[in-house]
Amino acid sequence: MATLIEHLTRLTDHRERELLELTMAKALIDLLPLQRVVIVVVASAEGGSRWLQLVRLDAGGGGTVIDPLRVDFAALPHLADDQERLRCIQSGSPFEVALEGDAGPHFSYLPLFDGARGDAQGVLEIHSPQALGPDERETINVVLHVFRNMYHLLAYSNRDGLTGLLNRKSLDDTFYSAVLDEMDEGAGPELLAGKPVSGQERRHRVPPNYWLGTIRVDHFDAIDEKSGHLVAEEVLLLLARILNNTFRTYDRIYRLGGDQFAVLMHCPEEALVLAAFERFRVNTERFNFPQVGHATACAGFTRITADDSPVIALERAERAVDYGRRNGGNQVHSFGALSRQGLLADTANVVRL
After folding, report:
1. Most CB atoms closer than 10 Å: which of 12, 131, 140, 203?
2. Are 37 and 8 spatial neighbours (Cβ–Cβ below 8 Å)?
């Protein structure tokens, strides 16, 4: 059995935030006499919030690890369906529930994040055969403290300094680490064993229903020139807010630089992706930007294929954006749909990243 120091070292070894929850759960299962560790977060979409279980590990070796990009939001449990988790979120404090008295099974609930920092909300749920002792609770607190520190460190390094959205480096990392076939095609055992997956292997395990879209503000240079740099930055900040309010919590939203944004999402149908970007377009068109008034944006998206790299997928999405901008702006286009209609022949050499 690995020692506490060895598990803490593994937590600090990670350079991908998505593996932190799994590593923490493995540490607790290995270090303590527990039955199960569950890690859930609050996911929001379509005007509501639900429980999204990221990790569940059992002492006997079973468990599940969920890719947030691929969840069916409508199938997730409502917050009110689990009152103990909800109490933990609302109180911001840990507590225990004894099922059969002190000598019987216990459920422990701890806030996953430090709410004072404005993090996403989540719960660390621990099932033990009996009440945990002071030393065991201290071990949990130490592991959770290191998890939070690493979460903030990685989140900071992966964020755009102006908008707080994910940055280009994070897109490159996620493209190869999260855009993979589901657990039943090999990703799960590798993750649970802590084995790395090479970039070349990842390129050929991309599911067919991942989509990458890019967004640009119409006439952004004119806004910058007329209203000044600070006002232009405020437009970008407000656009980031509109993006966060439009797309699902588990969709990945990026600022790539300047007025270029990107969204990585999993969706079963092209029509649903189009509808999501259309909602964003309409929300932007209706928004009243201070000192600017109304502004619009163009979006383009493409299905990710097994042979894609981030650069190749971004180039296709940008060609769809360019088509919309050259034809009046305030539009959303699918690269696939434009290609099928033969409308991109004159933009074959356009690359704008």
Report:
1. 140
2. no
Paired tokens of 154 = 């990685």
Tens-place pLDDT, residues 15-39:
666 688 989 999 999 999 999 999 9
pLDDT for res 220? 95
In this structure, the answer to whether residues 89 and 194 fall within a common structural domain is no
Do 36 and 149 belong together in one domain?
A: yes
Whether 44 and 96 map to the same domain: the answer is: yes
C-beta separation of 52 from 41 below 8 A = yes
What pLDDT shows up at residue 115? 67
| 235 contacts 217 by C-beta, under 8 angstroms | yes
Domain that holds residue 297: 169-347
Tell whether 88 and 201 lie within a shared domain.
no
DSSP code of residue 19: G
Q: DSSP per residue over 187-229, as a string?
A: HHHHHHHT----HHHHHT---TTEEEEEEEETTHHHHHHHH-H
